[in-house]
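Board notes (copied after class):
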Amino acid sequence: MSDRKTLRDAHIVICQKRLVHYRLAFFERLRERLAREGVRLSLVHGAASAEEALRQDGAELPWAESVRLREFFGGRAYWMPLPKGLRGADLVVVTQENKILSNYARQLARPFRRQRLAFWGHGRNFQSGRPGGWRERWKRFWTGRVDWWFAYTELSRRAVEAQGYAPERITVLNNAIDGEGFRADLAGTGEDLPAFRAGQGIALDAPVAIYCGSLYEDKRLGLLVAAGEIMAKRLPGFRLLVLGAGPEENMLRAAATTRPWLCLLGMRKGRDKALAFRAASVLLNPGAVGLHVIDSFISGCPLVSLAEARHGPEIAYLEHGRNALLLDRDDAGAFADAACGLLADAGRLAAMRAACEEAGRRYTLDAMVENFARGALAALAAPKR
């Protein structure tokens, strides 16, 4: 920072491609936390693409600034401008993505400016089908060309440090969502639960599983339906509740027409989401797992997934056999066996529920806010790289 300034009048700008509902509480609390240090936070975001809009997870903040993204190559890359009044910020935090062309300009200009630049990201693309391909090599080339790193999880930190970045300039955020709001919604659904179960045709004591997340290819929804088919034959009254929206929704709707056990509830938030989780005992997701592991922890519904799916860095929170089941065999029969076995073993299910709830108290939004705030203050105070 300039010698004429102190941390107490510093300005931080965070850039996001789009604003999603599960980040609102984080940005609000981070803004309040930094304000207590005399630091101003600004948030800049663009708009969702047509495909992203299908997920129905967009949101707005009255104090955030929306900018128009300049798209290139048919939307495969874009330039994100900074509003004129924010260009003099002391620290700019951008997402680590190859397709953000404006990042490269800021990185190239960084050695000649007082402004600090930080990455917020995974460290590498954990969902890449070609980790040794040119896209990942290109990402690695630019990974260290920032002044600070905000890593999603410990797994992300290891990925960044393995590329030669200074460990003392990496802040582990332990990515989380607003568990307290979800926990309060869960606690307030008791009176409505019988009516909800009746509405979904769930008999008394019938086994219920849930899926919650976006509906797209990497989620392996075909395998989910195939496993559910097996479970429905073994477990009388079984229901699978599916929460979410996305490009694969039509496939699921077609499947549900001949499968009465498959209940598509669409995008659910707040109490509606909590009701579905209260009715369920396990969370099923054979494909990519990300932030919804926090839903598993808060609700006490252990997750069943595949160990080698294209998971996000939040997979670091899961412990096989303790708070989740991460399966080696990639087939519907093995997946159904594991889920049915867990539903049938009350003692094991209770122990895993307790482990989930313990993890839910560890990976909290307040902790993430504090981690980010401390990292931002450290980035402002540290010499430029």
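Comment from the instructor: The chain has a mean pLDDT of 94. Residues 179-362 form a domain with the Rossmann fold fold (CATH 3.40.50.2000).
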